Amino acid sequence: MILGWRRRATVAVATVALLAVVGCGSTVSPTPGSSVTAPATSATASGAGPAPTCGPIPPVAPPSGLDQAGWWRDRTFYEVFVRSFADGDGDGIGDLKGLIGKLDYFNDNNVASQTDLGITALWLMPTFPSPSYHGYDVTDYRAVNPDYGSLDDLRELVKEAHRRGIAVILDLPLNHTSDEHPWFVGSKTGTGPYADWYRWSDAPQGNGWQPDGSRFYYAAFGADLPDLNLRNPDVTAEVTADAEFWLGTAGVDGFRLDAAKYLVEDGPTTENTPETHAWWRTFRSAVDAQVPRTLLLGEVWDLPKVSASYVPADLDLTFDFALDTGYVGAAQSGDAATLMRLMTNVTKLYPATSGFGAFLSNHDMNRVATQLDSDPGQLGVAADLLLTGPGVPFVYYGEEIGLTGAKPDERIRTPMRWDASSPAAGFSSGAPWESMSDDPPSLNVADESASNSSLLSRYRNLIHLRQLHPALSSGTWAPVASDSSSVVAALRVAPTETALVLTNVSTEPVSPTLSLESSPLCGRPAVFGAYGQTVTIGPELTAAGGFHDYRPVATLQPQSTVVILLGP
């Protein structure tokens, strides 16, 4: 959405330790590719335990193809505002050619180097023609904004992204159009084929009704954003055909669906009506019949129990807006207890087969670096929570370098900083459409890429770690009890591996003792290697696969995360 919602780094990287633990079978080696490029200052240690005694952990499977059901569950998404990302022609406005030129930044298909970010899916904010800079007021659902390029440019982007294993979804605002859309211009006459394509009344019926001569039209988000009348089957048929156009003609992989809870009003009830749920089911059925396994991702800015009510019957995913507040709050306060309760609740609400979108900030919020006052430790631990936690993670462009920004909206959507050059930090050779963020010149991709202790390096390490291990990318999440209120502890379980994840959100070292009632584990797991912190022994399991009074590390460093792989 585009309303002014109110919501509440050059970084010393806290160690992300990868501890491989096996049990019950023949001797095994660490999972191929499981080590993660380390900060130069990190200490490395190995611990040895009893010889493993059950079968080997299977190799990590490659990312699932786009033709498989639920292909989005093990991917890391990146939200791109095309206007602000990369300018390919020097006019100061970001465009599709500029974005194509930066695809290797996301994923260069070189697994060994890990110099890319590891991103496997892109969400493009609206790319349709629009009279505004943001694009959420569409004037043509079957064209590309000329500021950004052409339909051929979008096709080329999708082709090149797919070649790198990156999926592409478009932002599709269906609740409303621009007041300059030909449909609305025709509807204002009160006659003709578009007369009933918007909601009209001879008198205002409450909030959101806008005057037009002697009549009123419904526009919940402002006079320039009239709501479509989605009770009209002709409107539904047209916008469904528009979506199918992009799936077929451009080959995109799905849609982020703006203002998904507002589509069909029922008298004074304007949110989450039964008619809205039913409309999405109809839309989804039609789209799936045309292009199976299309991702439909809804923006349902609401309580978790409400956003969860849209999946899996109506939509494939919805964003969880409570969890982002929880992550940022825990990073800021150093207290994990509230976040643990929230994560336990949220993960129970969403179906494991579908899931939810997780994030730290987006284009409608003050940037997370601003929320956390650019504190290096807090930014790092927030990234840890997002990228080792449950759900499908979404990174807002620039978040990985600590880009700051506070409302008004243009200032949370400023151009990307690629280097320290003038006039636009490598974004453009010309004057940028919006002035750069207020960050120092050293905050940029080039400088942070050269530092193993930067926030960007931390994001790269975490995303690659997540991509390599299905326990992190698609495993279930279950809380593990800790005697430390600053530790987020959880068991992540996938068919091929199990991981224990610990994050110390505080600025003080802790020595957590852990307990778990039951798990799929068996035998006596043994630590055969450790990275980042010394680990000497695995948990002693009960008959139910649980453990008590387990202390995996003598000291868990401040604002750091440990990931421990456990055998079956």
List the helices and strands and how they pair.
Blueprint: E1 16-22, E2 77-80, H1 82-85, H2 96-100, H3 103-106, E3 121-124, H4 151-163, E4 167-172, H5 182-187, E5 200-201, E6 209-212, E7 215-218, H6 233-250, E8 254-257, H7 274-290, E9 295-298, H8 304-307, E10 317-318, H9 321-333, H10 337-349, E11 357-359, H11 368-371, H12 376-388, E12 392-396, H13 445-449, H14 455-468, H15 470-473, E13 476-479, E14 481-482, E15 487-493, E16 498-504, E17 514-518, E18 526-529, E19 545-550, E20 560-566
Strand order of the largest sheet: 10-9-8-4-3-2-12-11
Q: Uncertain regions: pLDDT < 50 for 5+ in a row?
A: 1-64, 528-532
Largest sheet: 8 strands, parallel
Residues in β-strands, percent: 15-25%
Terminal-residue CA separation: 44 Å
CATH class descriptor name of the largest domain: Alpha Beta
Number of strands: 20
Helix and strand content put the structural class at alpha/beta
- The CATH architecture assignment of the largest domain turns out to be Alpha-Beta Barrel
